[in-house]
Amino acid sequence: MRRSATPFLLLLLLAALLALPQVLPRFHTYVASIVLLTALLATSLNLAIGYTGLYQFGHAVFYGVGAYGTALVLTRSGMPAPVAFLVGPLAAAALSLVMGVICIRLSKLYFGMLQISLGSLVWAVVYRWYSFTGGDDGIHGIPLPDAIASPKGSYYFTLTVTALCVFAMYRIVRSPFGKVIQGIRDNPVRAAAIGVDVRLHQLASLVIAGFFGGVAGSLFVVVENSVFPDMMFWTFSLEVLIMCLLGGMYTFFGPLVGASVIVLLRVFASVHTQYWSLILGTILTLVIIFLPDGVLGRFVRRSLPKEDRGA
Amino acid sequence: MDFAANLFSTGTLSQILVGLSRTTILFIVSSGMSLILGVLRIPNVAHGSLYMIGAFAAWTVIQFLGGGLFAFLAAMIVAPLIVAAVGFILERGFFSYLYEREHLMLLLLTFSFALILGDLVKIVWGPEYRSVTVPAFFQGSAEIFGLPLPWYNLFLLLVGPCIAVFLWLVINKTKLGKIARAAAVDGEMVGAVGINTGWIFAFTFVLGSFLAGLGGALIAPMVNISLGMDHSLIIETFLIVIIGGLGNMWGALLGSLIFGLTQSLGILVWPQFGIAFPYLAVVAVLVVRPRGLLSSTW
Questions:
Q1: Which of A264, A286, B109, B144 is the most buried (most CB within 10 A)?
Q2: pLDDT tens digit string along A61-97?
Q3: How far does the CA of residue B116 sit from the closest CA of chain A (Å)?
Q4: How close B238 gets to chain A, by Cα (Å)?
Q5: For residue A72, what are the contacts with CB-CB under 8 A and spacing of at least 6?
Q6: Where are the domains of chain A?
Q7: ipTM of this complex > 0.90?
Q8: Do A280 and B115 touch (CB under 8 A)?
């Protein structure tokens, strides 16, 4: 009964999001765009961590590489904009494949620690390569096509791409492939025993997650008009992980909720205080202690019949 | 010999010696990380913050005692003790209730402590840079085989092996250390034979925190003590622990040496991206031995 209500609620949400820039002032439209693309980023991470059970601790790197790929093509080559929006995510997916091949043989935490370390290598290279990436200054004033240069234009572009990507990921999770990666998450040994190529599926999931993370990065270029190395720093990777945890890691829409909450809190907290980390750390501590399933996860578990709740 | 003499000119060699002395600090910090990782199975992201607190606390102690050799040596003892106390509070106050949780949750909890401690340092010490001058006793340079090496770096080169021996004694020769090693292999079994594993975990966490604080105190005269010094350190210790094998103390030593050497050589060869060389070493090690160089406890 509940399930039938979900599409209706989603359509309602989409309608509200479409109407948003018509009523909101400019700054809030910008914040809404950031919320959307961060939600996409968190959902893409959840594909690897929540659905495949891979401790991807360096996800912000794909976000950053997607953004830098797009920004560099837009500023440094004469190629048309659509190419730029393909190059970014594809570069992120390629990097995700390389890092995945290096790390995939390692067990859970070991895998995550190596991902976060390799990710910080990418950050260090971007941070120091002044002649190519602009070093710690980043790249500013990126030329955009007129249609998406205005705040409203960029908002609608972000909304469209985010909605399409989230829908695509939803289909992936529901596909046979999605069932297989969830099986691997729950019991890799058993999955291997029934003939599943575990590493191939894990790698594929990492690449897909990296690709959509890269898409979120490309959207960041559209919304922010600039890129800087700190968007791929390891602390941000863990912050995205917090978003997944806060929303609920084993639900599909949890990371969307978590990302919205964190981004909005950050925007409004930064107006009043410089101690954002303190607030975020406190929230995270409380969530871990009292709400380990996340906001949405708890809600979903409540709504399930008792015997399905599990441990 | 001629070839070697040319390749390793005096400048290069003394630079490597200076690099090695920084490596001893990395070893001290990452051996603490490795201990906690081995026994508690937590990659402690807050380890860097503990190191940063060690550096700031050393600065405060030296200011309080008015400088000089005595104040400096006192800071080297008091600052790590302060950090150990912070570790004790974290372990008894939070972690001890949550060991049953997934490792991912524990890792994120350490990250939340890293965030909180980072801002608390900002509140207590402010956002400015702090610096500690090397006491007069350690100023100037020694001559080692005709190479100039600052006394303080020589001091560090001596401290490193002392800490290694001390840790080896604690882990292998004391009852507490033996129980901790047993708990690293099978904590449940250790509990089943009637040992209170909670206090073993606390001991390990406090010892690990002490080592992080000691590393921070020792690095204080060599760098600007600043917010954010925890961020780069944590990745370095991760790499060292990965090279050496998770939870293996000698692995931490070997990993620090490999890390320090590849980094200082790398920066000589290619100043802009020398930082990448330790990563290449890590990838090379993992291709040959996916679980790190020395056997890890898990």
A1: B109
A2: 999 999 999 998 888 887 888 888 899 999 999 999 9
A3: 5
A4: 6
A5: A132, A133, A139
A6: 28-232
A7: no
A8: yes
